[in-house]
Amino acid sequence: MNDLHARHRRVLPDWLALYYDRPLEITHGEGRHVWDAEGNRYLDFFGGILTTMTAHALPEVTKAVSEQAGRIIHSSTLYLNRPMVELAERIARLSGIPDARVFFTTSGTEANDTALLLATAFRRSNTILAMRNSYHGRSFSAVGITGNRGWSPTSLSPLQTLYVHGSVRTRGPYAALDDTEFIAACVEDLKDLLGHTRPPAALIAEPVQGVGGFTSPPDGLYAAFREVLDAHGILWIADEVQTGWGRTGDHFWGWQAHDRNGPPDIVTFAKGIGNGMSVGGVIARSEIMNCLDANSISTFGGTQVTMAAGLANLTHLLEHDLQGNARRIGGLLIERLRAATAQDPGVREVRGRGLMIGIELTRPGTDRADPDRAAAVLEAARAGGLLVGKGGGHSTSALRVAPPLSLTVAEAEEGAAILESALRSTR
Known about the structure:
It is a single chain. It is built from 13 helices and 15 strands. It has helices at 3-11, 47-50, 59-69, 82-95, 108-123, 140-145, 179-194, 221-231, 286-289, 304-319, 322-341, 371-383, 409-425; strands at residues 26-30, 33-36, 41-44, 100-105, 127-131, 160-164, 202-205, 235-239, 266-269, 280-285, 347-353, 356-361, 386-387, 389-391, 398-401. The strands form three sheets. The chain has a seven-stranded mixed sheet with strand order 4-10-9-8-7-5-6, sandwiched between helices. Helix 12 crosses helix 13 (409-425).
Protein backbone atom coordinates (compact mmCIF):
# COMPACT_ATOMS: atom_id res chain seq x y z
CA MET A 1 0.00 0.00 0.00
CA ASN A 2 1.52 3.35 -0.98
CA ASP A 3 1.81 6.21 1.49
CA LEU A 4 -1.02 8.29 -0.01
CA HIS A 5 -3.41 5.32 0.14
CA ALA A 6 -2.52 4.70 3.78
CA ARG A 7 -3.10 8.35 4.61
CA HIS A 8 -6.42 8.25 2.73
CA ARG A 9 -7.59 5.31 4.82
CA ARG A 10 -6.61 6.98 8.09
CA VAL A 11 -8.55 10.21 7.61
CA LEU A 12 -11.36 9.56 5.09
CA PRO A 13 -14.53 7.43 5.49
CA ASP A 14 -14.37 3.67 4.97
CA TRP A 15 -17.36 3.96 2.61
CA LEU A 16 -15.53 6.33 0.25
CA ALA A 17 -14.98 3.88 -2.62
CA LEU A 18 -11.73 3.64 -4.57
CA TYR A 19 -11.23 1.80 -7.83
CA TYR A 20 -8.46 -0.81 -8.25
CA ASP A 21 -6.47 -3.02 -5.91
CA ARG A 22 -3.72 -0.40 -6.09
CA PRO A 23 -5.69 2.87 -6.13
CA LEU A 24 -4.71 5.36 -8.79
CA GLU A 25 -3.57 8.94 -8.22
CA ILE A 26 -4.20 10.98 -11.37
CA THR A 27 -1.87 13.96 -11.51
CA HIS A 28 -2.63 15.62 -14.84
CA GLY A 29 -4.46 15.24 -18.13
CA GLU A 30 -4.63 16.49 -21.69
CA GLY A 31 -7.27 15.83 -24.30
CA ARG A 32 -8.60 12.32 -23.76
CA HIS A 33 -5.58 11.13 -21.74
CA VAL A 34 -4.50 11.29 -18.10
CA TRP A 35 -1.26 10.43 -16.28
CA ASP A 36 -0.76 8.91 -12.83
CA ALA A 37 1.82 9.72 -10.16
CA GLU A 38 4.12 7.01 -11.54
CA GLY A 39 4.13 8.54 -15.01
CA ASN A 40 1.81 5.98 -16.64
CA ARG A 41 -0.43 7.30 -19.41
CA TYR A 42 -4.07 6.21 -19.79
CA LEU A 43 -6.80 6.73 -22.35
CA ASP A 44 -9.68 8.03 -20.24
CA PHE A 45 -13.02 6.41 -21.04
CA PHE A 46 -14.75 7.57 -17.85
CA GLY A 47 -13.95 11.29 -17.55
CA GLY A 48 -14.15 11.55 -13.76
CA ILE A 49 -17.63 9.95 -13.83
CA LEU A 50 -18.82 11.65 -17.05
CA THR A 51 -17.64 15.05 -15.83
CA THR A 52 -14.71 15.89 -18.09
CA MET A 53 -17.12 16.26 -20.97
CA THR A 54 -15.05 17.99 -23.65
CA ALA A 55 -11.37 17.32 -22.89
CA HIS A 56 -8.81 17.42 -20.12
CA ALA A 57 -7.05 20.79 -19.85
CA LEU A 58 -9.25 22.30 -22.56
CA PRO A 59 -7.45 25.59 -23.36
CA GLU A 60 -10.64 27.66 -23.62
CA VAL A 61 -11.83 26.56 -20.18
CA THR A 62 -8.39 26.87 -18.59
CA LYS A 63 -8.04 30.40 -19.96
CA ALA A 64 -11.54 31.44 -18.82
CA VAL A 65 -10.98 30.10 -15.30
CA SER A 66 -7.57 31.74 -15.00
CA GLU A 67 -8.77 35.13 -16.22
CA GLN A 68 -11.86 35.11 -14.01
CA ALA A 69 -9.84 33.99 -10.96
CA GLY A 70 -7.60 36.98 -11.51
CA ARG A 71 -10.61 39.29 -11.19
CA ILE A 72 -12.91 37.73 -8.57
CA ILE A 73 -13.71 34.13 -7.72
CA HIS A 74 -16.75 34.43 -5.49
CA SER A 75 -19.35 36.84 -4.15
CA SER A 76 -22.48 34.64 -3.48
CA THR A 77 -25.93 35.07 -5.00
CA LEU A 78 -26.61 38.14 -2.85
CA TYR A 79 -24.94 40.26 -5.53
CA LEU A 80 -25.46 40.55 -9.27
CA ASN A 81 -23.23 38.14 -11.15
CA ARG A 82 -22.74 38.73 -14.89
CA PRO A 83 -21.32 35.28 -15.82
CA MET A 84 -24.16 33.58 -13.93
CA VAL A 85 -26.80 35.60 -15.75
CA GLU A 86 -25.15 34.96 -19.12
CA LEU A 87 -24.92 31.20 -18.59
CA ALA A 88 -28.49 31.06 -17.26
CA GLU A 89 -29.72 32.87 -20.36
CA ARG A 90 -28.00 30.38 -22.65
CA ILE A 91 -29.20 27.34 -20.72
CA ALA A 92 -32.78 28.65 -20.57
CA ARG A 93 -32.79 29.04 -24.37
CA LEU A 94 -31.37 25.54 -24.87
CA SER A 95 -33.69 23.89 -22.36
CA GLY A 96 -36.86 23.75 -24.44
CA ILE A 97 -38.86 24.77 -21.34
CA PRO A 98 -41.11 27.82 -21.87
CA ASP A 99 -40.43 30.83 -19.62
CA ALA A 100 -37.56 28.91 -18.06
CA ARG A 101 -35.76 30.00 -14.91
CA VAL A 102 -32.37 28.58 -13.89
CA PHE A 103 -30.95 28.06 -10.40
CA PHE A 104 -27.29 27.04 -10.05
CA THR A 105 -25.96 24.58 -7.49
CA THR A 106 -22.60 22.95 -6.88
CA SER A 107 -23.49 19.36 -7.85
CA GLY A 108 -26.05 17.04 -9.37
CA THR A 109 -27.04 15.84 -5.92
CA GLU A 110 -27.86 19.39 -4.86
CA ALA A 111 -29.66 20.03 -8.15
CA ASN A 112 -31.92 17.01 -7.62
CA ASP A 113 -32.46 17.99 -3.98
CA THR A 114 -33.59 21.43 -5.16
CA ALA A 115 -35.89 19.91 -7.78
CA LEU A 116 -37.53 17.77 -5.10
CA LEU A 117 -37.97 20.84 -2.90
CA LEU A 118 -39.61 22.75 -5.75
CA ALA A 119 -41.89 19.89 -6.78
CA THR A 120 -43.09 19.08 -3.27
CA ALA A 121 -43.64 22.75 -2.41
CA PHE A 122 -45.48 23.42 -5.68
CA ARG A 123 -47.69 20.35 -5.37
CA ARG A 124 -48.06 20.33 -1.56
CA SER A 125 -47.19 16.63 -1.52
CA ASN A 126 -44.19 14.69 -0.25
CA THR A 127 -44.87 11.61 -2.41
CA ILE A 128 -42.41 11.05 -5.24
CA LEU A 129 -42.51 8.57 -8.11
CA ALA A 130 -39.06 7.24 -9.04
CA MET A 131 -37.76 4.56 -11.35
CA ARG A 132 -36.38 1.21 -10.26
CA ASN A 133 -32.59 0.93 -10.64
CA SER A 134 -32.29 4.73 -10.38
CA TYR A 135 -29.67 6.94 -8.75
CA HIS A 136 -30.12 10.65 -8.03
CA GLY A 137 -27.35 11.61 -5.60
CA ARG A 138 -25.89 11.38 -2.14
CA SER A 139 -28.01 13.77 -0.03
CA PHE A 140 -30.61 12.52 2.45
CA SER A 141 -33.52 13.28 0.13
CA ALA A 142 -31.76 11.98 -3.00
CA VAL A 143 -30.81 8.72 -1.28
CA GLY A 144 -34.43 8.42 -0.18
CA ILE A 145 -35.65 8.20 -3.78
CA THR A 146 -32.76 6.14 -5.17
CA GLY A 147 -33.97 2.80 -6.52
CA ASN A 148 -30.57 1.08 -6.39
CA ARG A 149 -29.78 -0.78 -3.16
CA GLY A 150 -26.02 -0.51 -3.65
CA TRP A 151 -26.26 3.28 -3.34
CA SER A 152 -28.98 3.56 -0.68
CA PRO A 153 -27.49 3.30 2.84
CA THR A 154 -30.72 4.08 4.71
CA SER A 155 -34.45 3.56 4.32
CA LEU A 156 -35.18 6.73 6.30
CA SER A 157 -36.41 9.60 4.15
CA PRO A 158 -38.40 12.84 4.30
CA LEU A 159 -40.27 11.61 1.21
CA GLN A 160 -42.65 8.78 0.45
CA THR A 161 -41.24 7.07 -2.64
CA LEU A 162 -43.10 4.76 -5.01
CA TYR A 163 -41.13 2.93 -7.68
CA VAL A 164 -42.32 2.60 -11.26
CA HIS A 165 -41.54 -0.04 -13.92
CA GLY A 166 -39.87 0.84 -17.22
CA SER A 167 -36.29 2.03 -16.86
CA VAL A 168 -34.65 -1.35 -17.59
CA ARG A 169 -35.72 -2.72 -20.94
CA THR A 170 -34.24 -6.22 -20.75
CA ARG A 171 -35.09 -7.25 -17.19
CA GLY A 172 -38.25 -7.46 -15.10
CA PRO A 173 -41.78 -8.70 -15.76
CA TYR A 174 -42.18 -6.95 -19.13
CA ALA A 175 -38.80 -7.80 -20.69
CA ALA A 176 -40.25 -10.33 -23.15
CA LEU A 177 -42.65 -7.80 -24.69
CA ASP A 178 -41.89 -5.78 -27.80
CA ASP A 179 -41.30 -2.04 -27.37
CA THR A 180 -44.91 -1.00 -27.99
CA GLU A 181 -46.26 -3.64 -25.62
CA PHE A 182 -43.56 -2.79 -23.07
CA ILE A 183 -44.57 0.88 -23.00
CA ALA A 184 -48.26 -0.01 -22.79
CA ALA A 185 -47.66 -2.39 -19.87
CA CYS A 186 -45.58 0.21 -17.99
CA VAL A 187 -48.28 2.84 -18.52
CA GLU A 188 -50.96 0.50 -17.17
CA ASP A 189 -48.74 -0.26 -14.17
CA LEU A 190 -48.36 3.50 -13.53
CA LYS A 191 -52.13 4.00 -13.74
CA ASP A 192 -52.70 1.15 -11.31
CA LEU A 193 -50.09 2.54 -8.90
CA LEU A 194 -51.72 5.97 -8.90
CA GLY A 195 -55.01 4.34 -7.94
CA HIS A 196 -53.52 3.22 -4.63
CA THR A 197 -51.81 6.35 -3.34
CA ARG A 198 -52.33 9.98 -2.49
CA PRO A 199 -51.48 12.35 -5.39
CA PRO A 200 -47.69 12.41 -5.89
CA ALA A 201 -45.71 15.60 -6.46
CA ALA A 202 -43.57 14.40 -9.34
CA LEU A 203 -41.95 11.60 -11.27
CA ILE A 204 -38.15 11.89 -11.37
CA ALA A 205 -36.36 9.86 -14.02
CA GLU A 206 -32.97 9.62 -15.74
CA PRO A 207 -33.49 9.27 -19.52
CA VAL A 208 -30.51 6.88 -19.43
CA GLN A 209 -29.67 5.53 -15.99
CA GLY A 210 -26.05 6.26 -15.14
CA VAL A 211 -25.06 4.41 -11.98
CA GLY A 212 -27.63 1.78 -12.96
CA GLY A 213 -25.37 0.67 -15.81
CA PHE A 214 -26.52 2.86 -18.74
CA THR A 215 -29.93 1.23 -19.00
CA SER A 216 -32.86 2.98 -20.67
CA PRO A 217 -36.45 2.39 -21.74
CA PRO A 218 -37.71 2.43 -25.32
CA ASP A 219 -37.96 5.92 -26.82
CA GLY A 220 -41.32 7.45 -26.01
CA LEU A 221 -41.92 5.81 -22.63
CA TYR A 222 -41.79 9.07 -20.67
CA ALA A 223 -43.96 10.78 -23.26
CA ALA A 224 -46.57 8.09 -22.65
CA PHE A 225 -46.13 8.52 -18.90
CA ARG A 226 -46.58 12.27 -19.37
CA GLU A 227 -50.17 11.81 -20.52
CA VAL A 228 -50.98 9.98 -17.29
CA LEU A 229 -49.02 12.43 -15.14
CA ASP A 230 -50.70 15.47 -16.70
CA ALA A 231 -54.14 14.00 -16.02
CA HIS A 232 -53.24 13.99 -12.32
CA GLY A 233 -51.29 17.26 -12.26
CA ILE A 234 -48.05 15.38 -11.46
CA LEU A 235 -44.78 17.05 -12.51
CA TRP A 236 -42.08 15.38 -14.60
CA ILE A 237 -38.47 15.91 -13.47
CA ALA A 238 -35.79 14.82 -15.98
CA ASP A 239 -32.48 14.08 -14.25
CA GLU A 240 -30.01 15.06 -16.98
CA VAL A 241 -26.93 15.06 -14.75
CA GLN A 242 -25.29 12.39 -16.91
CA THR A 243 -27.29 12.56 -20.16
CA GLY A 244 -27.31 16.30 -20.84
CA TRP A 245 -25.29 18.44 -23.28
CA GLY A 246 -25.32 15.99 -26.20
CA ARG A 247 -23.71 12.92 -24.64
CA THR A 248 -26.36 10.59 -26.08
CA GLY A 249 -25.54 11.83 -29.58
CA ASP A 250 -29.05 11.71 -30.99
CA HIS A 251 -30.26 14.50 -28.72
CA PHE A 252 -28.93 17.47 -26.77
CA TRP A 253 -31.05 16.40 -23.79
CA GLY A 254 -31.92 12.80 -23.02
CA TRP A 255 -35.59 13.72 -22.52
CA GLN A 256 -35.85 14.62 -26.20
CA ALA A 257 -36.18 10.91 -26.99
CA HIS A 258 -39.52 11.21 -25.14
CA ASP A 259 -40.71 14.63 -26.30
CA ARG A 260 -44.02 13.85 -27.99
CA ASN A 261 -45.94 15.57 -25.21
CA GLY A 262 -43.54 18.43 -24.64
CA PRO A 263 -40.58 19.10 -22.36
CA PRO A 264 -40.31 18.17 -18.68
CA ASP A 265 -41.56 20.58 -16.03
CA ILE A 266 -38.13 20.50 -14.37
CA VAL A 267 -34.69 19.53 -15.69
CA THR A 268 -31.63 19.01 -13.50
CA PHE A 269 -28.05 19.14 -14.79
CA ALA A 270 -24.45 19.02 -13.56
CA LYS A 271 -21.23 17.12 -14.33
CA GLY A 272 -20.25 17.84 -17.94
CA ILE A 273 -21.27 21.49 -18.17
CA GLY A 274 -18.37 22.53 -15.90
CA ASN A 275 -15.85 20.14 -17.50
CA GLY A 276 -14.55 19.41 -14.00
CA MET A 277 -15.62 22.58 -12.21
CA SER A 278 -18.42 22.24 -9.62
CA VAL A 279 -21.50 23.30 -11.57
CA GLY A 280 -25.01 21.93 -11.21
CA GLY A 281 -28.41 23.41 -11.65
CA VAL A 282 -32.16 23.26 -12.08
CA ILE A 283 -34.28 24.54 -14.95
CA ALA A 284 -38.02 24.95 -14.39
CA ARG A 285 -41.04 26.86 -15.58
CA SER A 286 -41.21 30.19 -13.80
CA GLU A 287 -44.39 29.31 -11.85
CA ILE A 288 -42.63 26.28 -10.39
CA MET A 289 -39.26 27.94 -9.77
CA ASN A 290 -40.93 30.92 -8.10
CA CYS A 291 -43.25 28.90 -5.84
CA LEU A 292 -41.04 29.08 -2.74
CA ASP A 293 -42.42 31.46 -0.13
CA ALA A 294 -39.28 31.73 2.03
CA ASN A 295 -35.82 33.21 1.45
CA SER A 296 -33.26 31.10 -0.34
CA ILE A 297 -29.75 31.76 -1.64
CA SER A 298 -26.71 29.78 -2.71
CA THR A 299 -23.35 30.60 -1.21
CA PHE A 300 -21.32 28.61 -3.74
CA GLY A 301 -23.79 27.88 -6.54
CA GLY A 302 -23.06 30.04 -9.58
CA THR A 303 -19.72 31.46 -8.50
CA GLN A 304 -18.04 33.68 -11.08
CA VAL A 305 -15.20 31.27 -11.75
CA THR A 306 -17.42 28.20 -12.25
CA MET A 307 -19.80 30.16 -14.47
CA ALA A 308 -16.87 31.36 -16.59
CA ALA A 309 -15.84 27.73 -17.01
CA GLY A 310 -19.38 26.71 -17.94
CA LEU A 311 -19.71 29.46 -20.53
CA ALA A 312 -16.41 28.60 -22.18
CA ASN A 313 -17.15 24.88 -22.13
CA LEU A 314 -20.67 25.26 -23.55
CA THR A 315 -19.36 27.53 -26.31
CA HIS A 316 -16.70 24.99 -27.26
CA LEU A 317 -19.23 22.14 -27.20
CA LEU A 318 -21.63 23.93 -29.55
CA GLU A 319 -19.05 25.43 -31.91
CA HIS A 320 -17.33 22.06 -32.42
CA ASP A 321 -20.58 20.04 -32.66
CA LEU A 322 -19.50 17.59 -29.99
CA GLN A 323 -23.04 16.20 -29.91
CA GLY A 324 -22.58 15.19 -33.54
CA ASN A 325 -19.19 13.72 -32.72
CA ALA A 326 -20.75 11.69 -29.89
CA ARG A 327 -23.32 10.34 -32.33
CA ARG A 328 -20.75 9.43 -35.00
CA ILE A 329 -17.92 8.09 -32.85
CA GLY A 330 -20.30 6.55 -30.34
CA GLY A 331 -22.05 4.63 -33.10
CA LEU A 332 -18.74 3.26 -34.34
CA LEU A 333 -17.60 2.37 -30.83
CA ILE A 334 -20.75 0.53 -29.79
CA GLU A 335 -20.75 -1.55 -32.97
CA ARG A 336 -17.05 -2.32 -32.49
CA LEU A 337 -17.70 -3.46 -28.92
CA ARG A 338 -20.70 -5.56 -29.95
CA ALA A 339 -18.60 -7.32 -32.57
CA ALA A 340 -15.77 -7.85 -30.08
CA THR A 341 -18.06 -9.43 -27.48
CA ALA A 342 -20.38 -11.40 -29.75
CA GLN A 343 -18.74 -14.73 -28.84
CA ASP A 344 -18.26 -13.97 -25.15
CA PRO A 345 -20.81 -16.00 -23.13
CA GLY A 346 -20.32 -13.70 -20.16
CA VAL A 347 -21.43 -10.55 -21.98
CA ARG A 348 -25.19 -10.31 -21.65
CA GLU A 349 -25.65 -7.03 -23.50
CA VAL A 350 -23.80 -4.08 -25.03
CA ARG A 351 -26.16 -1.11 -24.86
CA GLY A 352 -26.30 2.64 -24.87
CA ARG A 353 -26.28 5.56 -27.26
CA GLY A 354 -23.75 8.17 -28.22
CA LEU A 355 -20.75 8.10 -25.91
CA MET A 356 -22.69 6.48 -23.07
CA ILE A 357 -22.16 2.73 -23.46
CA GLY A 358 -22.74 -0.11 -21.00
CA ILE A 359 -21.41 -3.68 -21.19
CA GLU A 360 -23.36 -5.95 -18.84
CA LEU A 361 -21.48 -9.00 -17.56
CA THR A 362 -23.18 -12.15 -16.26
CA ARG A 363 -21.98 -15.58 -15.26
CA PRO A 364 -21.87 -17.73 -18.43
CA GLY A 365 -24.99 -19.79 -18.92
CA THR A 366 -26.97 -17.78 -16.38
CA ASP A 367 -28.62 -14.39 -15.95
CA ARG A 368 -26.77 -13.66 -12.69
CA ALA A 369 -24.54 -10.62 -12.39
CA ASP A 370 -20.78 -11.15 -12.35
CA PRO A 371 -19.25 -8.34 -10.26
CA ASP A 372 -15.99 -10.25 -9.82
CA ARG A 373 -15.36 -10.28 -13.55
CA ALA A 374 -16.33 -6.62 -13.84
CA ALA A 375 -13.68 -5.77 -11.24
CA ALA A 376 -11.16 -7.97 -13.05
CA VAL A 377 -11.86 -6.28 -16.39
CA LEU A 378 -11.31 -2.87 -14.80
CA GLU A 379 -7.91 -4.04 -13.55
CA ALA A 380 -6.95 -5.58 -16.91
CA ALA A 381 -8.05 -2.49 -18.81
CA ARG A 382 -5.97 -0.29 -16.52
CA ALA A 383 -2.96 -2.53 -17.11
CA GLY A 384 -3.53 -2.03 -20.83
CA GLY A 385 -3.70 1.76 -20.48
CA LEU A 386 -7.49 2.34 -20.39
CA LEU A 387 -9.74 3.69 -17.62
CA VAL A 388 -13.43 2.68 -17.62
CA GLY A 389 -16.13 2.70 -14.95
CA LYS A 390 -18.63 0.20 -13.62
CA GLY A 391 -22.20 0.20 -12.33
CA GLY A 392 -25.36 -1.85 -12.39
CA GLY A 393 -28.55 -2.59 -10.54
CA HIS A 394 -28.82 -5.78 -8.48
CA SER A 395 -25.02 -6.01 -8.49
CA THR A 396 -22.19 -3.95 -9.93
CA SER A 397 -21.49 -5.91 -13.09
CA ALA A 398 -21.87 -3.43 -15.95
CA LEU A 399 -18.84 -1.72 -17.44
CA ARG A 400 -19.46 1.96 -18.12
CA VAL A 401 -17.79 3.55 -21.13
CA ALA A 402 -18.16 7.34 -21.33
CA PRO A 403 -15.18 9.17 -22.86
CA PRO A 404 -14.97 12.92 -23.43
CA LEU A 405 -17.19 13.94 -26.36
CA SER A 406 -14.17 15.01 -28.42
CA LEU A 407 -13.01 11.39 -28.76
CA THR A 408 -11.38 10.61 -32.12
CA VAL A 409 -11.87 7.56 -34.34
CA ALA A 410 -8.32 6.41 -33.62
CA GLU A 411 -8.82 6.75 -29.87
CA ALA A 412 -12.13 4.88 -30.04
CA GLU A 413 -10.45 2.02 -31.86
CA GLU A 414 -7.53 2.00 -29.42
CA GLY A 415 -9.84 1.89 -26.42
CA ALA A 416 -12.03 -0.82 -27.94
CA ALA A 417 -8.98 -2.97 -28.63
CA ILE A 418 -7.75 -2.61 -25.03
CA LEU A 419 -11.20 -3.41 -23.68
CA GLU A 420 -11.52 -6.44 -25.97
CA SER A 421 -8.18 -7.74 -24.71
CA ALA A 422 -9.20 -7.13 -21.09
CA LEU A 423 -12.45 -9.05 -21.58
CA ARG A 424 -10.65 -11.90 -23.31
CA SER A 425 -8.06 -12.18 -20.52
CA THR A 426 -10.75 -12.51 -17.83
CA ARG A 427 -12.93 -15.17 -19.45
